[in-house]
Amino acid sequence: MGHPAAATRTSSAATTEWIDISVPIYNGMVHWPDNPPIAVKPVMHVERGDLATVSALEMGTHTGTHIDAPIHFIPGGAGTDAVPLDHLIGPAKVIQIEHPSAVTHAELRDSAVGHAERLLLKTLNSERCWKGSEFVSNCIALEEDAAKYLADLNTLAIGIDYLSVGSPDVHRTLFGAGVVIIEGLNLSHVTPGEYELLCLPLSITGGDGAPARALLRRLS
User: Tens of pLDDT along the chain (220 residues)?
Assistant: First the structure.
């Protein structure tokens, strides 16, 4: 199956144009090597004479576009059903990360992200990591001092354009400051700037992660 992630899906009205920055879920898509593979299997189908078409979906909770919950790395932490949704809905800033191998404190500081309550990081990941089904191990992620910088700014949500925002310590730093982590975005078709973000994860009781649909709308 061809990879559909680069497609842009928007509404027809220019004044209410939504950009889908989610990665579509499909059979055999890329995933963390130690996570469950993704399988979409039809178990009933109207074309076979069944009453309805029904499929079985098998995947890990950190598949494609998803959020992480504190319990992912913090014993006794909150699950996805307790993540504050208002952190995932509202004004957001997309910035371009130029560094070829990491999101650094220096670049974030120079990008003047201090006023951004929700920050989405567009890196080289969007162009090079979503084009196939092979896991890219050297993806761009936050360095620990960059995570500390964003935590100190009281950022509500951080999004990045591949399957991890950074090391376990990066996650713990962000979780400790109440930051909601969005991973697995596709920002290849998004220009840096100010947007409205709508990101709604599944409500999985006690979940360590949850698939999400994420949309952006440009703010004038």
Answer: 445 444 444 433 334 699 999 999 999 999 999 999 999 999 999 999 999 999 999 999 999 999 999 999 999 999 999 999 999 999 999 999 999 999 999 999 999 887 789 999 999 999 999 988 899 999 999 999 999 999 999 999 999 999 999 999 999 999 999 999 999 999 999 999 999 999 999 999 999 999 999 999 999 7
C-beta neighbour count of 157 within 10 angstroms: 26
Identify the domain containing residue 137 by its residue range. 14-26+60-218
In a domain, 1, yes or no: no
Q: State the catalytic residue, choosing from 72, 87, 115, 189.
A: 72
Number of domains in the chain: 1
Q: Does 45 participate in catalysis according to the annotation?
A: no
